Amino acid sequence: MPPTQTVLTAKAQEIRRHIMIMLERAGTGHSAGALGMADVFTSLYFDLLKHDPNNPTWHERDSVILSNGHICPVLYATLATAGYFSPDMLQTLRKFGSPLQGHPHLGKLPGVENSSGPLGQGLSLATGIAYGLKYDNATNHVYCLMSDGEHQEGQVWESYLFAAKYNLHNLTVMIDRNQIQIEGFTEDVLPLESLHNKIASFNWHVLEIDGHDHQAIADAVHEAKEYDLQPTAIICHTTPGKGVAFMEGRPEWHGKPPNTAEAQEALQQLRMSTGNHWRE
Amino acid sequence: MNNTLGKSTRDGFSDSMVELGQVHQNLFALSADLTESVRLTAFEKHFPDRCIQVGVAEQQLAGVAAGLALAGKIPVAASYAAFQPSNSWGVIRTSIALQNLNVKLIGAHAGLATGPDGATHQALEDIALMRVLPNFVVLQPADYTEAIEAMRAAIAHRGPVYLRTSKVEVPNLQFLHPFELGKIRTLQQGSDITIIGTGAVFSEILEANEQLLKRNISARILNCSTIKPLDEATILQAARETAGLITVEDHQVTGGMGSAVAEVLAATTIGKPCIRLGAQDRFGESGNQAELYQKYGLSSKAILETANRILAKG
Fold it and tell me: Has residue A277 got a pLDDT over 80?
C-alpha cells in the first residue's frame, strides 16, 4: 500500500522543520532549494524508491545522485527521517568533524551516493552508473536530481546526448525548476526556456509536473520507469523556500540560512500549515 | 645500452588493454573520438561491448568513467593529454579524485614529442595538473614494455590513476630491476652525477651517456615512471652519492617530475644541485621531436652541458 497524500505531506513538513533547525544551528547553508525539493525527496524516499535504510549499500537499491549538492540539507533531513542515521546528527551540519559536510561527501554518511557541489557533474555520474547497470541487465533505477540553474553548464548537455545515444531508460532526471539561482532568476541570468523543448530535442522523454504534488510526482516517476524508448526527464515546478512565506520565490534565500528569529517564524508557519500532523 | 628505437608507449598501452580485458571482465574502455590514435582500436576489436564512445566531450568522458566505477566497473578513459586533464580537470577533481574512485585516465600524445600538431596539442602541464590531486597515482612509462607493466600495475591498484603516453617510437630500455609501482628504476649505476628521466626522453639521455662514458664520467641513470607517489629514498640516495641531479622531462619544469624531485631535496640538508630540464614556462610549436627537444633544452647536448656545469663546480 503506498502511503496516503496526508502522510507524505506530513513527512515533507517534518523534513522542512529539520531543514530550518539544522540551517539555523549551522549559521550557514542553502535554504530555498532545500525547502523547495522537500516534496520530491519525500515522495522518493517514502513512496517510490527501492531502498533499505538499514542496508545503505544494498545491491538492489535504486541510486539517487544529487547533482546540485548545495541543497543537501534536504537530503540529510530525508535520510535521517527515513532511518539512515539518527536525526540528532542533523544538528552537526557543516560543523568540524561532522559527516554532514557542507556539500555531500561520498563515504561520510550512509545513504549519500556521491560527492557534489560544483554544478553540472551529477548527470555524467548518473549516466555512468546507468550504463553499468544496463550492461549488467540489473533492474536498479538511477535518479539524478538537478537544479535548473546548473543546466547552464555545458557538461549537462554532453550527458543528455550520451544518455540518449545509449537509451539509458533506467535513468530518470528530476529537475528542480524553481526559477532561481544565486544572482537572481534563471531567465534573467541566462535564460533556459524552453527547457522542455531543449531536453526533448536531445531525444529525451520530458514530463512537467507540480513538484509539490505527491500524486503527480508518483505518476511521473512510474511513467518514467515504464517508458523504455528514451530516458525521461521530469521538470518539477517548485516554489523555492516552499512552506516559509518570507522565503518563497525569493532568490536572496538561495544561499542563506535563517537567523534564530527567522527560524522560529519559519517553524511557526510550518506548524500552522501542518495542523494535527506536526511532530516536534 | 642500445639506443635503437622500439615501439611507442601508446602501443604498449594498446597491447596491455587487450591482455587486461581478457583478465578483467569488468574492464571498460572509453574514448572521446580518438579511439585509433590513443590506441584503443585493438581493445574495441576484441571487446566491442565494453568500448564506450562518448564523442568529443571530455567532461562527460571523466564523469561517465566515475559513474562506471560507482557501478563496480574498471573504466579506462583515454584522450589526448592536451584535452584530458585540461578540458575536464574540475570533473576529475570532484567526481574522481575527491570520491577516490577506481578510474584510470590515459593522457596520450603528451608533450613536445607530439610534434607537428603544434602548441595546442602538446600537453606540457598535465603532470602538474594531476600530481596536485590527492588520491591520484601518476605514471609515465618510458618504453613499450614498461607501458604494459605500468598498465598492469594501474589496474591492480584500487584507486584513481593517471597514465601518460606518447606517440613517438622510443628505445627499449634495459633496467636493473623489474617494474614496481612507486619505485624509480635504475638503468645504470653511477657515482659522479645522476640523470633522472621520465617518458619519451631516454633517447637523449642515452646519447648523453655515451658522451659522458667517453670522458670517463660515471652517470647514474634513473627512470622515474611513478611520478606520484614519488620514490624519495632513491632520490635522496642519488643526491648523497653523486654530485647532483639532472631531471629531464617533456613537460613544463614547473609542477612536473623535476619539481617533485626538487621538492624532496629542498626538505633535506643534503645541499646538492637539482637542475631541471624541460619546457621553461613557454608553449611548444610545430616541428619534429628532435628539433623541438633541441630548441627547448631537452637534447643530449643540453644534458651534457648541464652535467659539465654541475661537475665543474663539484
Answer: no
Distance from CA of B27 to the nearest CA of A (A): 11
Name the nearest CA neighbour of A133 among B62, B48, B64: B64
3-state helix, strand, coil in chain B (%, to 5): 40, 20, 40
Mean pLDDT calculated for residue range A262-274: 94
Mind listing the pLDDT tens digit for each residue in B104-155? Answer: 999 999 999 999 999 999 999 999 999 999 999 999 999 999 999 999 999 9
Architecture of the domain whose range is A5-277: 3-Layer(aba) Sandwich (3.40)
CATH topology of domain B9-164: Rossmann fold (3.40.50)
Instruction: State how far residue B37 is from chain A, nearest Cα, in angstroms.
Output: 22
User: Would you list which residues of chain A are within 8 Å, Cβ to Cβ, of chain B?
Assistant: 63, 105-107, 113-118, 120-121, 123-133, 135-136, 154-155, 158-159, 161-162, 165
Of A114, A116, A131, the CB nearest to B52: A131
Structural domain spans, chain A:
5-277
| Nearest-CA distance B162 → chain A (Å) | 19
The neighbouring-strand residues paired with A145 are A66, A174
Domain B185-313 has CATH 3.40.50.300: no
Q: For chain B, what are the domain ranges?
A: 9-164, 185-313
CB atoms within 10 A of CB A198: 15
Chain A nearest-CA distance from B121, in A, is 22
Using an 8 Å CB-CB cutoff, list chain B residues near A161. 55, 57, 60
Which residues from chain A sit within 8 angstroms of residue B54, using beta carbons?
158, 162
Distance separating alpha carbons of residues B274 and A107, to the nearest angstrom: 41
The sheet carrying B245-252 orders its strands as B185-188, B219-223, B193-198, B245-252, B274-279
Residue B45 pLDDT > 80, yes or no? yes
Q: Looking at beta carbons, which residues of chain B come within 8 Å of A117?
A: 94
- Which chain B residues touch A155 with a CB distance below 8 Å? 59-60, 63, 91
Contact A195, A157 (CB under 8 A): no
pLDDT (0 to 100) of residue A109: 97
Say whether pLDDT at B3 is over 90. Answer: no
Whole-number pLDDT of residue A278: 60
User: Could you report the predicted ipTM of this complex, rounded to two decimals?
Assistant: 0.95
Q: Which three cell numbers stand for residue B180?
A: 614496481
